[in-house]
Design goal:
Keywords: Membrane, Mitochondrion, Repeat, Transmembrane, Transmembrane helix, Transport. Pfam families: Mito_carr. One of its GO terms (cellular component) is mitochondrial membrane. The chain has a single domain (3-278), classed as Mitochondrial carrier fold (Alpha/alpha barrel). It has helices at residues 3-35, 43-54, 64-68, 70-88, 98-111, 113-127, 139-150, 159-186, 191-209, 211-222, 230-241, 250-278. With 279 residues, the protein is mainly α. The protein is globular, with a radius of gyration of 19 Å. α4 (70-88) packs antiparallel against α5, α8 (159-186) runs antiparallel to α10 (211-222) and α9 (191-209) packs antiparallel against α12. The protein is built from twelve helices and no strands.
Amino acid sequence: MSTSVLQDLFSGSLAGGAGCILGHPLDTIKVRMQANPAQFPTLAQSITRTLAHEGVKGLFKGLAPPLGSIAIYQAVCFASFSPALSLLTPFAASKATSNHLFLAGCASGLATVLVTTPTDLLKIKLQTKTAATHHQSSIKQMLLSIIKNEGLTGLYKGASATAIRDTWSTGLYFVVYHTLCRRGKEEKYNGDLVELVAGGVAGMTAWGLCLPADVVKTRLQADNSLKPTWLGTLSQILNNEGSGALFAGAAPLLSRAFFVNAVTFWTYEKVNKVINNNG
């Protein structure tokens, strides 16, 4: 493995870890609003009820699975995006068009489903276990229970829903980020500001547009009583609650998307600069 690959993996893992920790409280609120809108109907009520019954630690439920898989996620993301972009632009990756970036991003989003699906499944199940839940499970207990009852394939419940959410949205994410960075450099804006804004806007755009798909995925992975297919879960939500339910958790999702992605991209660029300056 080359030094540049190791550097990207290290920088990406550090940046991803920072974003994961800082954004997890809003992610927990988002998941609860999507999975149980009757109990958590608004952002304010969701936060106050979680704090009242579980304290601050309740906001960090389910953090271990995504945080523990950051390095693997970054490795898969890098190992899929860079080769895909090189394949699409064999002579000059720096001249990649928006179409090239979108397709390479889609390839990356699809590849990371292998990591995201099981980690999101465990994360969501832990996040939706509130103080009122009769049986509290540890990650180990939950993992063993899924494997025992459903086999290893049980860890990939919601894989199709994850792919539907992540494939095109990751492509869009890369297009928006690189386009804004390019324009910012052309206009000679402050580099730090460009990276923060580009990362935040890219995150909000991608996550905002895939919100309905995210709601379906959350419901599918959180509730064993729902039909085990994306279309089955979607039709059940529409029939029972109407189309408005597909936009549950919009406030925490969009807030988290801007904040986390701004911090993640900024941290990634800064860590790379520090390494390069001291290399």
